[in-house]
Amino acid sequence: MAPTAYLINTSRGPIVDEDALLRALQEKKIAGAAIDVYSVEPLPADHPIRKLDNVLLTPHLGYVTAEKLAIMYQDAVEDIIAFLDKKPIRLLKSTKSH
Fold this sequence. Notes:
Helices cover about 30% and strands about 10% of the residues. The chain is of the alpha/beta class. It has a three-stranded parallel β-sheet, with no helix packed on it.
């Protein structure tokens, strides 16, 4: 990568060699990185990458949006009401043969 490059990983932590990335960032071999996935999640509090000023770290929250949370909570409420009414919905089908 060029010294002006930024690595962005929002996919899978283990696809990036974190030790090599840490060295590249410390030695300014790349301009920076933005990461929300890590080989160990949550990222340990004492991880050295947290001390770098050329890194943007965020928690792995790619699926979290206000719209998605609203749907999840609404579905949960509907599930509870249906269960209490003894008319459960969104049942999972078992793959076991009886």
